């Protein structure tokens, strides 16, 4: 898809609801589109929206092997509530074994380079496998989540993966998300009520303090401008 086509679609859908946007792309790409879910609040909203439009829509998640127990439980609860089979992608065992053997089990605390290697092994490589056969993916990014996401658009071209990226909640506020969750009775991770607005791998996530942005607890030992795992690079 060209830059001009992306710009035209963003203009076309600038005032559309997330449901309208999702419906259009599910119809357009049929079995070549999937929702990538981390089981966070935004992705839970999108799971409800996607399955309400197309009950057998493709949804996948990445199991890094270091997730919170509450996240695993939520995968099960969500699958049962929406009668959907969330496909789970795992990292390559030999790649994880080699990385840990060479740099240690908690290598990510030692340097940004090590942390990015861990993210690449546990998340990026499985994501690339999940993308095989797809032309578009839906994800739960919002512009006000962090400084690294402030310029996102509803529709983008993911150059790293050569795939169309759709952010239906790009311009929603955190309050919009939680209002919708309450309205629809959507299951969420209980850690959200314990100060975890953004939940990733267990050792790399902490609760946030009052006044911090919603992603301050992710890779909390790093500067804000490095806090992406590589899934959402321009």
How would you characterize the overall build of this protein?
This protein has 234 residues and is an alpha/beta fold. The chain has one domain: Rossmann fold (3-Layer(aba) Sandwich), CATH 3.40.50. Helix content is 38%, strand content 10%. The chain is built from seven helices and six strands; from the N terminus they run H-H-E-H-E-H-E-H-H-E-E-E-H. The chain has helices spanning 3-12, 18-29, 41-53, 69-81, 93-103, 112-131, 174-184; strands spanning 33-36, 58-62, 87-89, 136-138, 155-158, 163-166. A six-stranded mixed β-sheet has the order 3-2-1-4-6-5. Helix 4 links the parallel strand 2 and strand 3 (87-89).
CATH class: Alpha Beta
* Uncertain parts: none
Q: What fraction of residues sit in β-strands? A: 5-15%
Widest beta sheet: strand line-up:
3-2-1-4-6-5
* CATH topology group: Rossmann fold
Residues in helix, % = 25-40%
CATH superfamily: HUPs
Number of domains: 1
Sketch the major β-sheet. 6 strands, mixed
Termini Cα gap: 15 Å
Anisotropy-based shape: globular
Query: Which structural category fits the helices and strands?
Result: alpha/beta
Q: How many helices?
A: 7
């Amino acid at each position: 898809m060209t830059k001009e086509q992306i710009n035209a679609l963003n203009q076309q859908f600038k005032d559309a609801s997330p449901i309208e946007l999702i419906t259009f792309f599910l119809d357009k790409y049929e079995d070549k589109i999937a929702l990538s879910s981390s089981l966070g609040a935004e992705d839970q909203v999108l799971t409800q929206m996607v399955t309400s439009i197309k009950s057998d829509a493709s949804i996948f998640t990445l199991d890094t092997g270091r997730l919170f127990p509450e996240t695993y439980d939520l995968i099960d609860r969500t699958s049962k509530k929406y009668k959907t089979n969330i496909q789970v992608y795992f990292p390559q065992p030999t790649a994880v074994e080699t990385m840990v053997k060479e740099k240690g089990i908690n290598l990510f605390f030692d340097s940004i380079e090590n942390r990015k290697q861990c993210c690449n092994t546990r998340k990026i490589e499985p994501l690339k496998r999940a993308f095989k056969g797809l032309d578009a993916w839906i994800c739960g990014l919002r512009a006000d989540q962090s400084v690294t996401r402030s310029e996102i658009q509803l529709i983008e071209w993911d150059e790293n993966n050569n795939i169309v990226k759709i952010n239906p909640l790009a311009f929603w506020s955190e309050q919009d998300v939680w209002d919708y969750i309450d309205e629809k009775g959507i299951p969420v991770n209980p850690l959200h009520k314990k100060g975890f607005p953004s939940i990733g791998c267990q050792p790399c996530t902490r609760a946030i303090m009052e006044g911090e942005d919603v992603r301050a607890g992710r890779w909390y030992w790093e500067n804000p401008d490095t806090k992406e795992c590589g899934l959402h690079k321009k």
